[in-house]
Amino acid sequence: MQIKRRFIAGAVCPRCGEMDRIVMFQDEQGQFRECVSCGFKEKMVVDEGVKELETRVTQERKSDPEVQPIRFFPSPKKKSS
Ligand SMILES: [Zn+2]
């Protein structure tokens, strides 16, 4: 399982006070934020609905910026076997 880490822009570490040092990542135990500067780590309480929506939107933007029709059936009649 690959753990994605991403920086939170403008986030300030509650321990050391550094800005832009907070990364967010998710594993099987939940979503965490961690300070790469001092090692501060905290589990985040995320609403499931919001999390799912955010993930879906992010993935769609990354892989497919434009809305494209999805073809479920690759027209089997084209094959002349
Ligand atoms: Zn810190």
Give a short summary of the structure.
The radius of gyration is 19 Å and the shape is elongated. It has one helix spanning 48-63; strands at 5-7, 22-27, 30-35, 41-44.
* Widest beta sheet: strand line-up: 1-2-3-4
| CATH topology grouping of the domain at 1-46 | N-terminal domain of TfIIb
What sequence of helices (H) and strands (E) makes up the elements? Answer: EEEEH
Terminal CA distance: 40 Å
Amount of helix:
10-25%
β-strand percent reads: 15-25%
Mean pLDDT across the residues is: 78
Shape: elongated
Helix vs. strand class: alpha+beta
For the secondary structure, the number of strands is: 4
CATH architecture of the domain at 1-46: Single Sheet
The top level CATH class name of the domain at 1-46:
Mainly Beta
Describe the main β-sheet briefly: 4 strands, antiparallel
Question: What is bound: which ligands?
Answer: zinc ion
Rounded to the nearest angstrom, the radius of gyration is 19 Å
Uncertain residue ranges: none
Number of helices: 1
